[in-house]
Amino acid sequence: MAVEMSVKIGAVRLSNPVLLASGCCGYGLDMESHLDLNAVGGVCLKGLSMSGSEGNPPPRICETPAGMLNSIGLQNVGVPEFRRTYAPKLRKYRTAFIANFYGHTVEEYVAAARALDEEPVVAALEMNISCPNIRQGGISFGTDPRSVHEVTAACRRVCGKPLWVKLSPNVTDITVTARAAQDAGADALTCINTLPGMAIDVERRTFKINTKTGGLSGPALRPVAVRMVYQVAQAVKIPVVGIGGISKASDALEFLLAGAQAVQVGTALFTNPQAPLDILEGIEDYCSRHGFGAAGDLSGAVEDDRSPRRGPVCS
Amino acid sequence: MALKTFQVTENRVQGSYAAITAEGPVSPALPGQFYMLRGDWGADPLLSRPVSILAQDVSSRQIRFLIKVFGEGSRRLASLKPGELLYGTGPFGNTFPVDFLSPEDRVLLVGGGVGMPPIVYLAESTKAMGVSPVVLQGGRTEKDLVLLEELAGLKIDPVLATEDGSRGRKGRVTVLLEEALKDAPRVVYACGPEGMLQAVADVCRGRVACYLSLEAYMACGYGVCLGCVVSVRQEEGGRYRRVCKEGPVFSAEDLTWR
Predict the structure, then answer these.
(1) Helix, strand, or coil here: A232?
(2) Which of A299, B83, B147, B161 has the fewest CB atoms within 10 Å, i.e. is most exposed?
(3) Is B217 on the interface with A (CB under 8 A)?
């Protein structure tokens, strides 16, 4: 029997549960010649702000054990330029485009949310709350539950489309910020953003990336991300989109079984732009082998029972 | 594009360099273009390594790369044995502009170390256009002079310089470049370590057109990670350009480096 691969994230119907992560696929156009965008459930676009950003000086990236650090500095063309130049070229696709956005003040977030909400090509918005709040001494919005609530509520008010909030892992208890976002009207939660890290070149006695610290991504992050997806899925009623070091089907399945309704593939795209296709095939195959009629049924299907067994659920 | 699989057919090691020949789905490519390469080693090292094409032949499905050992990823690539598999995405990047060249033009190719493969590939391609280039190669010691057999195979006798004087002229390659500029070349193309390229750009500034192929740390090679940027002079479009996409070849005049 064919497996139903489509999933619903709130009001958004995705053709399958595998999305491209923001910051790892540009505005979609740089992916076009490497991957059929219609083959994935959604494309989370590079984070946009109203005024855009040139990004940080190089070196911006370095490799770490089973991972990498990046400090791109949210380089982006700005919402107006995105709408003028890039969005029209995305209209030919059926896939769901999720517009990731950020600001440095609540007002900047609201302005970006409002403008992206008006863009026809955008199916949903994904709010990056891991940015420094310049009115609060540069403390990240995403680490303070009150700031999370405030910025989510403010964007919710101006936004007719589904609003996803991408949570920061840089917190003591992620369920607190998850609930704050839910209470403020978020439609879904993306778990998790990169984890702040640092690497030092000992021979040259310098930091490996220009800004000293950068966001850790890749398989090294995965166990942390799976744990947080599980905790968040237990704590909230809204859908969870899992992300963190997914490069193969079994990785994606961990997130789905932990409670995610969909997953995002990021760093793995760098080495293999078609990794999402292998992951999708693997998920479908897993569903068939384990008797799941729909990919959506995988969500939260992990069990505490560790007794040896378990054959296929169906007989 | 899917990950391409190549099978290593030869690995010639010279000091910290390995010249690898592999067979597989070779796509048409141009000098300066590169692949992102990795072996079958899972998630650590995580990223593929950018490696320039040294030579290739689409019809016989052969491609050659020169790997220099810098760290763990390049060490593993350099130690691949015949029969082992090499995985890659590519070819990526732009190429050296050569459309304006005519057979009577004098063309200077300047390279050093792991920057030599695009220079050798470019020499092969300009010769096919009827333009015979002069190749200048610099290195710290004789051991750092590479691909001399390949150049001899193209009937090119490179002018050499080593910093310790162990072979060729004693000094940096810019000493050779200063002299070669007296012959009024039409253009200078260079590829090598950043310090060498900056020195080449300084020598050429205001005197001759100069195009540089840059090296950079990069995660993806196809423009999405934004990790490999270099700073440029143009105001329009921001101050950064991606080495993998708008490069690796840039006009020396456009670069501000940092």
Answers:
(1) helix
(2) B83
(3) yes
State the nearest Cα–Cα gap between A48 and chain B, in angstroms.
14
A30/B223 Cα distance (integer angstroms): 6
Distances (CA, A) of B6 to A191, A276, B25, B165, B201: 37, 22, 7, 39, 36
The model's confidence at residue A63, banded by pLDDT at 50, 70 and 90, is very high
Active-site residue, selected from the candidate residues A24, A25, A44, A131: A131
Q: Which of A63, A86, A247 to mutate to test the interface with B (most CBs of B within 10 A)?
A: A63
Residue A131: active-site member = yes
**Is the pLDDT assigned to residue B85 strictly greater than 80?**
yes
Could you tell me where the DSSP H helices lie in chain B? Answer: 72-78, 116-128, 148-153, 173-180, 194-204
Query: Position of tokens 């333009």?
Result: B131
**Tens digits of per-residue pLDDT, B71-84?**
999 999 999 999 99
Neighbours of B233 (CB within 10 A): 10
- How near does any CA of chain B get to the CA of A57, in Å? 7
- Which pLDDT tens digit goes with each residue over B162-210? 999 999 999 999 999 999 999 999 999 999 999 999 999 999 999 999 9
Q: Which residue has the higher pLDDT, A54 or A136?
A: A54
pLDDT tops 90 at residue A131: no
Report the alpha-carbon distance of residue A8 to residue A200 in Å, rounded.
43
Nearest to B38 among A33, A271, A274 (CB): A271
Beta partners for A62?
A69
pLDDT at A311 over 60: no
Most B-contacting residue of A33, A60, A209, A281 (CB-CB within 10 A), to test interface: A60
Is this complex scored with an ipTM above 0.90? yes
Chain A: residues touching B (Cβ < 8 Å): 23-26, 30-31, 33-34, 54-55, 57-68, 70, 72, 75, 218-219, 247, 267, 269-274
Report the predicted TM-score, pTM, of the whole model to 2 decimal places: 0.95
Three-point CA angle A298, A242, B227, nearest 5°: 145
A-B Cβ pairs (cutoff 8 Å, strict)? 102
B66: left (phi over 0), alpha (psi -120 to 50) or beta: beta
Residue A315 has pLDDT above 60, yes or no: no
The confidence score (pLDDT) of residue A29 equals 96
